[in-house]
Amino acid sequence: MPAVPWLQILFGIMGLSRQRASKMAHRAMLIIVFVCRGERGGGCAKSQLDATVDYARGNGIRQLELAVSGESMAAIRFYEREGFHEAGRTGGIMHDSREIDDVMMVRRIEDYKTSRGHRGTQIAGTVIRSGKRPDELGSSGLQWL
Fold first, then answer.
1. Closest C-alpha among 116, 115, 136 to residue 58
2. Coiled-coil annotation: which residues (predicted)?
């Protein structure tokens, strides 16, 4: 079997879904946010979010939105450190016969570039893959799909 010249490891993934209606096209929702358990707290989520914000800003998005479990205090604190604020709560999921709220969070993006001519929902994502740890990657390890 030939030797593998490099090893790719998936550390995390983050997606972005732009609103469809023209009056809301300046808004996008963070979706599919995931960081491997062993990589949490090591900068992977921040690297992904920074790349996602840069991508959004470069495509005319002024506001990012997300929903996070009301019981996920570590995630809520992370998003607050990154400039998101709570915009409200909604009924989320049922777990063991009890309802867990979703916390709706919003972040405005400054210094946006106007985007014209988009059609429909645009979905993009970033994946971190490398033989290096996320804090060693820099932006070169981030790939937009």
1. 115
2. none
- 3 state SS of 19: coil
d(CA 132, CA 141): 9
Q: How do beta strands 9-18 and 63-69 pair?
A: unpaired
> How are beta strands 123-130 and 9-18 bridged, if at all?
antiparallel
C-alpha 123 chain-centroid distance:
12
User: Topology of domain 9-144, per CATH?
Assistant: Aminopeptidase (3.40.630)
Phi/psi at 64 (nearest 5 deg)? Answer: -105, 140
Q: Report the percent of the chain where pLDDT is more than 90.
A: 29
Domain ranges of the chain: 9-144
Q: List pLDDT tens digits, range 60-99.
A: 999 999 999 989 899 999 999 999 999 999 887 888 888 8
Tokens for 97?
């016969």
Residue 14 neighbours by CB distance under 10 Å:
24
Cβ neighbours, 10 Å, residue 135: 12
Tokens read off for 109 = 């993006």
